[in-house]
Amino acid sequence: MPKRTVLDPQGQTIQHALSGLGYRQVRDVRQGKFFVLNLDGWSRDEAQSQLERISKEVLTNPVIEEYRFEIVD
Amino acid sequence: MPKRTVLDPQGQTIQHALSGLGYRQVRDVRQGKFFVLNLDGWSRDEAQSQLERISKEVLTNPVIEEYRFEIVD
Asked: Which chain A residues are Cβ-neighbours of B40 within 8 angstroms?
């Protein structure tokens, strides 16, 4: 997800398009990425710390993006 | 999110990269899009039905993608 302080031209374009289609109640759109990872072989604690690293070092650009993740059994 | 029956080359590339970096416990990756919409002027019921339409008609390609949304106050 782009940080709030970072411009999101894709989101703005979608907001414009929706407004043009009559959805004027949509005031703001931000677009981000979404990943579903299938894990096997880590305990829940290991998964927590490994996913922290994967998120920070591989899946996001920490300068302009923020992330959050959830572990589902 | 691409449907399970649809190939996801981006997700596969990420899975390969992670495996190469030593994260072999990540068996599968699927990549999708994520939108945060700021709404104003709809009741919760209206938001529910309008978001259903927006998801289906604007934000996803129903042939290859599936969606779900959540309304947060």
From this structure: 25, 27
Give the DSSP letter of residue B50: H
Q: Which residues, at least 6 apart from A62, have a Cβ–Cβ distance to it below 8 Å?
A: A56
pLDDT in tens, B8-53: 999 999 999 999 999 999 999 999 999 999 999 999 999 999 999 9
Q: Are the C-beta atoms of residues A32 and A2 closer than 8 Å to each other?
A: yes
| Stated pTM of the model | 0.85
Q: Could B34 and A37 be called an inter-chain contact, meaning their C-beta atoms sit closer than 8 Å?
A: no
Beta-bridge partners for B35: A31
Q: How far is B26 from chain A (nearest CA, A)?
A: 5
* Geometric angle at alpha carbon B61, from A58 and B67, rounded to 5°: 65
